[in-house]
Amino acid sequence: MGFDTERLIVSSSKFFVSSKKQKYSSNNVGSSTAVPDQKISNSGNLKYQNIGAQKDVKGNDISSPTPSLFPSSSCDSRKRLFNLSSISSNEGNVPTDNFCNVYPTPKSCNTSRRILSFGNIYRTSNPVNDVPGINGKMGLGAPEPSQSSKNVLGFGGCNYGHGSIIKGVKNVDNLSNNVCEVAGSKALAEKAPSRMVPHFDSVEKLKNAGNQEYRRGRYMEAISYYDKAIALNCHNAACHNNKAAALAGLGKFTEAVGECLHAINYNPSYSRAHYRLGTLYTRLGHVNEGKWHFKQSGHDIGSEAMQLLLHLEAHLTNMQKAREVQDWDHVLEESNLCIEAGADASKQVLAAKAESLLKLHRAKEALEFLIVVKNSEESKSRKSGEVAQRLLIIETQINLYLGRFNEGVLAAEQAVNLLSNSESLMWLRKARGIADARNAGNEFYKAGKYLEACSMYGQGLQHDPTNCVLLCNRAACRSKIGKWEVAIDDCNAALRNRPDYSKALLRRAYSNARLARWEESLRDYSVLSKEMPGDNVIADALLQVQMELKKAKGACAYNIELRPLRSSQYKTHSLS
Fold first, then answer.
1. H or E element: which one contains 231?
2. Which helix (H) or strand (E) holds 473?
């Protein structure tokens, strides 16, 4: 049976090689005919047509009466070919390919088939004998030529597709090994078995890890572990209770209350959660709720926790009564006692303390206290409710009192956004009216239009008649036009609401000096000299007033040279 190589096609992505037409007749299977010495590319898949048998031989499938004994590798998408090693002794050893190992085949096999090497075509000048089905032609058992091409055939791994030409690869073994490693690692990653940890054990390990972080004071890390445990079992009351403890350590008391409620919801008889909830309600100033949970945790009325809560209840009651009668000294005292009793996170208590400080003309201290309260974690996490709005309204009042009008408007807007009611809207109108009047009055004052400036400050005082900043600014305008008496009246009104307001004291001292009221002027300058001992201007004005006073009392006998009073000698601050 012969075969015709008229159509010998090398199929690849871009290469097709057709050999010269040559007919080889091989009626006798044992006969051998040498392959002509011609260069044939070893690239691409080979499609060999056997006319006699009419069977295609492809790189990924070879028809054989004997099934393949070896499965395909994960690196090769084509089926394996097994080599025949029954080559005559004068051909030497057959090179072993990494893709196809050599396995002996009986010489008596008369299977008439044509087998090509896996991806390579070899040429040889010596006939290949005793290989069934080969007839000395190109075959799987042929020795590799010494001048074979360095290009190899891709086998569908890594970045090269099935049938692609990989140029300049000297050793296909290295390439195949690397690709096998990549493919094997991908398959391992895709099929990596996950070790199933028992559900309860996993939650316990996470909870214990969180407990360790809590003992170290690392509350955020502890919360992270508790959250993971809760994600595995959201009904675990202990994890919710421990998370509440960590949140309380961060100062987030309202969130901690929520976690305790979750724990009690899943386990109503959980005494630890009840006790923790009682302590949290104590710090928030919720006396009735704290009592109930303390009782649920097993603490009777004589326990230390219950006694502390009863003391807190008494101080809260006294504070409310004092506020109703505007006894601000008593309000401040009772609010401090409430904080000492444990209600250090109660917005009601904190607001009462800030308000009492403002009413007692300790506005700067009240502002510092409010800043601390606003920067606390509890205030950041809890920004809703009437009590939070009350704190913003108090902050508005403090800013207006200190002349921080823009900050006052901002706080009033936040209060309205938080809860829009009549009180918040009223303070927003006040803050905007005062701020606009002050800005317009200052512009007129700078332009030398003092009457217009007085009018604008008066419009602002309609919103807040006791605003010391507007009163002091209007006094400055009136002193500019020589209205010393009404200027003194404005300064007196400002000082009644803010006794430590140095600008009002300075303008009153200057106005009294212009009216030759030396004793009143000396008294104010003496106070200012003690408050600002390093101020040379005030010291010089004080000396001049003392000399005028001595002159008025007959100081001429001492032959003291007196200089006339000039306004430039008196320190005048800029407008507020």
1. helix 219-232
2. helix 468-480
What is the residue-averaged pLDDT of the chain? 73
Q: Is the pLDDT of residue 333 over 50?
A: yes
Question: How distant is the alpha carbon of residue 286 from its chain centre?
Answer: 33
Residue type, position 243, single letter:
K
Strands 162-166 and 45-50: unpaired
Q: How far apart are CA 209 and CA 216, in angstroms?
A: 11
First vs last Cα of the chain: how many Å apart? 117
User: How far apart are alpha carbons 375 and 541 in whole angstroms?
Assistant: 44
| 126-150 mean pLDDT | 43
The residue among 220, 215, 348, 335 whose CA lies nearest residue 281 is 348
The pLDDT of residue 428: 96
Evaluated on CA atoms 402, 403, 406, 412, the torsion sign reads positive
- Residue with the two structure tokens 């060999």: 48
| Widest distance between CA atoms in the chain | 159
Distance CA 508, CA 537 (A): 16
Residue 531 to residue 273: CA distance in whole angstroms: 55
Read off the tokens for 173: 């073994």
How far, in Å, CA of 239 to CA of 204, rounded?
9
Pick from 305, 310, 309, 377: nearest CA to 345: 377
Q: Look at residue 16 and tell me whether its pLDDT is greater than 90.
A: no
Q: Higher-confidence residue: 213 or 143?
A: 213
Alpha-carbon dihedral angle through residues 354, 360, 364, 366, given to the nearest 10 degrees: -10
Contacts within 8 Å (CB) and 24+ apart, 366-369: 366/394, 366/398, 367/395, 367/398, 367/399, 367/402
Q: List the one residue out of 574, 570, 518, 571 whose CA is nearest residue 547.
A: 518
At residue 43, φ and ψ (nearest 5 deg) are -105, 150
**Cα 104–Cα 108–Cα 111 angle in degrees, nearest 5:** 90
User: For 440-457, how does the pLDDT look when each residue is reduced to its tens digit (9 = 90+)?
Assistant: 999 999 999 999 999 999
Residue 144 has pLDDT above 50, yes or no: no
Cα–Cα distance measured from residue 306 to residue 293, given in angstroms and rounded to the nearest whole number? 10
Q: For 459-511, what is each residue's pLDDT tens digit?
A: 999 999 999 999 999 999 999 999 999 999 999 999 999 998 999 999 999 99
Residue 222 tokens read as: 């502890």
Query: pLDDT at position 245, please?
Result: 95
Token pair recorded at residue 491: 């300064």
524/532 Cα distance (integer angstroms): 12
Confidence at 11, pLDDT banded by 50, 70, 90:
very low
